[in-house]
Design goal:
Helices cover about 85% and strands about 0% of the residues. The protein is an all-alpha fold and about 140 residues long. The chain has one domain. The termini are far apart. Helix 3 runs antiparallel to helix 4.
Length: about 140
């Protein structure tokens, strides 16, 4: 049995992504548990604004981890990383940063412009990746008889 470099690459990539998916899954589970444990702080702490900020940040971080895990899980069925899931995680990350900075009142006009341009580019990448995916899907689907 001869192992080709491409087969070796596929096998190693599969193992690496499997390990990453396990760690992200554990991170999501631990994050959800900590989220519920921190709800007690929300009830009993006097600095409720800080606790809400922490809660929002934790929830948005979990969304990012979920988007990344979706990308990795999709790899095992398609054997490629779909850009839409990765760009979705990037969009959620940028939105998380914007929301936290606005909530803290620590965002400058330059940062708003820069993050807006970044969101625009990520949105354009998302639309472009969906368009390319749909056209590839159409090309691979045999015509009806």
């Amino acid at each position: 049995m001869k192992i080709t470099p491409l087969a070796l690459f596929e096998k190693v990539t599969g193992w690496v992504l499997s390990v990453m998916l396990v760690f992200i899954t554990f991170g999501i589970i631990i994050g959800v548990l900590r989220l519920f444990l921190n709800l007690g702080d929300l009830v009993f702490n006097e600095d409720i604004t800080r606790q809400y900020q922490r809660l929002i940040s934790d929830v948005l971080t979990l969304f990012i981890l979920i988007e990344l895990s979706r990308s990795l899980a999709d790899y095992f069925t398609t054997h490629r990383l779909r850009m839409t899931f990765i760009v979705d995680a990037g969009i959620v990350f940028i939105l998380r940063e914007i929301m936290i900075k606005i909530f803290e009142h620590k965002i400058t006009t330059d940062e708003v412009y820069a993050l807006s341009v970044l969101l625009f580019v990520l949105g354009a990448l998302r639309i472009g990746s969906i368009t390319v995916f749909q056209s590839e899907k159409k090309m691979l689907t045999p015509p009806p008889k």
